[in-house]
Amino acid sequence: MRVLIAEDNPVIAMGLAARLRALGHQPLGPAPDGQQAVALARAERPDLYLFDIDMPRLDGLAAAALLAGEGLRRPIVAITGVDDPTLVDRSIATGVSAYLTKPIDDRELDAAIRLASQRQHELEALEAEAAQAREALADRKLVEHAKGVLIDALGLSEPEAFRRIQRTARQRNLRLADVARQIIDQRELLTPPTREDAR
Question: What pTM was computed for the model?
């Protein structure tokens, strides 16, 4: 796994890089502050962020939030030398998956990276499910609207209108929602002409 380190203490940063290599990961950086961490993340596209919270120019949590806003959300392991409950709350609000207090040993680091990665996969799976559900609901609304167009224009019953949409979808090898969208887009052609249209 490619892990971006952001740590303003060079000795700790070097130690973290060595530990990551020993655990089989590829360390990137280290970045000495949050702004450089953001620049490196944009350039390198790492798999995970290992960010110190208290850094100059831009702290680790702010850097992670900025990257997430740019579509570069990754699993985050936050590290800090301060035992402060408010930092834990802030970390959770930022989407931090694992939180470590210095000094950090290899087992803690390994467990935190595994946990953060697993939580990120779970979150992405939930987001994908939610997106599919939203798409299915939007498709259903389209089909209902198209059925209404066919009922009004052709005097069909609701089951007849739905069967017509299904049949057209099969014949044209399209999704029901695509056929429904075409019907809605062309509803003017299905509407009987009025006296105004005849003039």
Answer: 0.66
